[in-house]
Design goal:
YigZ family protein; alpha+beta; 10 strands; 30% helix; five-stranded antiparallel beta sheet
Length: 213
């Protein structure tokens, strides 16, 4: 598993108009090629009356699977520019379909490349980019008398609360960087005067938004 990587936040859609042609960028996180192809097919069905539904996707930790489709536009003027934007933004597990409704004015090869690149870039920014970073889950079990103090301390700290379980005792699950987990354990032990039961849990991805949506 990669220690961290960038991908899109969720599904999104963004439209621009260039020389009377409508370019609608559809963006989705897709973790397999099957998901990518299903998303492309869904958009093509939704916009079956469009002039073109051009697409590209990158799948895998090392971009093992990548594909660009021009869907009737001149070769290399649509799918490849979409794919290049994904690469330039260092995104993984991402699919983009740009739907074009022709407005009557031909753009030429250079104009098409710029249009599909611009549509893709703006569509991704509108959708939002997130960083997914591998973190260790650490659980702290304490009596309820400690909850208020610990929650306040944690919310003012570098650590991110994953969830709080309210059982016979309260269990606070947090995300910690692997190299800082012992610092957290020592800090929590000191805060609770050694009354906390602290356990290391799974390694999971923590997702944080780094771009506007």
């Amino acid at each position: 598993m990669l220690p961290y990587y960038l991908t899109v936040q969720h599904r999104g859609e963004h439209e621009i108009v260039i020389e009377r042609s409508r370019f609608i960028a559809h963006v989705a996180r897709t973790e397999t090629e099957e998901e990518a192809q299903t998303f492309i097919a869904e958009i093509k069905k939704k916009h079956k009356d469009a002039t073109h539904n051009c697409s590209a996707y990158l799948i895998g930790e090392r971009n093992e699977i990548q594909k660009a489709l021009d869907d009737g536009e001149p070769s290399g003027t649509a799918g490849v520019p979409i794919l290049e934007v994904l690469k330039k933004k260092n995104l993984k597990d991402t699919t983009v379909v740009v739907t074009r409704y022709f407005g009557g004015i031909k753009l030429g090869a250079g104009g098409l490349i710029r249009a599909y690149s611009k549509s893709t870039s703006e569509g991704i920014e509108a959708t939002g980019i997130v960083e997914r970073k591998l973190m260790r889950v650490v659980s702290t079990k304490v009596d309820y008398t400690w909850l208020g103090k610990l929650e306040n301390e944690l919310r003012a700290s570098i650590y991110t609360i994953k969830e709080i379980e309210y059982l016979d005792q309260v269990i606070i699950h947090i995300f910690a960087e692997e190299e800082k987990k012992q610092d957290y354990i020592d800090w929590m032990t000191e805060l609770t005067n050694g009354q906390a039961i602290i356990q290391e849990g799974d390694i999971l991805y923590l997702e944080q938004k780094i771009s506007k949506s």
